[in-house]
Amino acid sequence: MAEALSNAGSANSLTLESVRQSLIRQEDTIVFGLIERARFPINSPTYNGSYANIPGFSGSLAQFLVRETEALQAKAGRFTNPEEHPFFPKDVPPSLVPSQNHTEDLHPSAASININKSIWDVYFDKLLALFAAPGDDGNYEATAASDLVCLQALSRRIHYGKLVAEVKFKTSPTEYEPAIRAKDRDALMKLLTVESVEEEVKKRVAKKAMVFGQEVTLNKTVDDTGKYKVDPSVLSRLYGEWVMPLTKLVEVEYLLRRLD
Question: If we measure between CA atoms, which residue out of 151, 149, 209 comes closest to residue 27?
């Protein structure tokens, strides 16, 4: 997922095709993440602060696991990668390992854009109930760990909008500059929206949910019962209502700062 940033020193490393291929691969990660989380029911105590009752911490088990995991990953250098964004940025310690040589494809202002609060709210308030069954099996720690995988995959995909915006801007700067200088968010959103492409993405992620989420046996490789580990329509809705709109929000915020 870091292909577009991996060719250090190459002025042409960031291209429309490299960005497109990365976004397609990230679809796989998101689909598999949701399938893994769907192994567990809702497990509501995972999100109840009164259940966790962790000394020195006020919040749910899910919040605690995300915060503590991010702190460890930060020490190992995860958030020095411009593709990665913490959900608890105020609690992220500095990296303790040598800095990686990430290419500087993005405008420096990109570092100020982090919409993980919105992603967190969408995931827990809207998305989770669409694919996790009601119930409680007691596996709260594993549930929170699966949530973290989904959250980070969604965050990476949505914030990848910065790279999408950068490559689009470099491809057609004269098309974007007037709207940027006018601070015209609506005009930028219109420039960034290609409905035919968005429909294609929604159909592709739904099909991936069908292929990845079917039961496979030695006697039957295709589940023709119409039952999948995650309903394909959930993936289509996820991308249509949240992933792509939030990605375009990131793109607009980035472009508004692009000429600073």
Answer: 209
CB 259 within 8 A of CB 155: no
CB 119 within 8 A of CB 158: yes
Which pLDDT value is given to residue 9?
Answer: 36
Q: What pLDDT does 1 receive? A: 41
Q: Quote the pLDDT of residue 225.
A: 59
Question: How far is residue 88's CA from residue 11's CA, in Å, rounded to a whole number?
Answer: 33
Enumerate the H helices of the chain as residue ranges: 3-6, 16-37, 49-52, 61-75, 116-122, 128-131, 140-159, 161-171, 173-181, 185-192, 195-212, 232-237, 244-257
pLDDT confidence of residue 79: 95
**CA 23, CA 157: separation in Å to the nearest integer?**
7
Q: Mark 218-246 as b/e (b = at least 16 C-beta within 10 Å).
A: eeeeeeeeeebbbbbebbbbbbbebbbeb
Reduce the DSSP state of residue 55 to 3 states and report it.
Answer: coil
Q: What are phi and psi of 134, to 5 degrees?
A: -65, 155
Q: For residues 234 and 240, what is the distance between their CA atoms, to the nearest angstrom? A: 10
Burial category of 197 from C-beta neighbours within 10 Å (exposed 0-12, middle 13-18, buried 19 and up): exposed
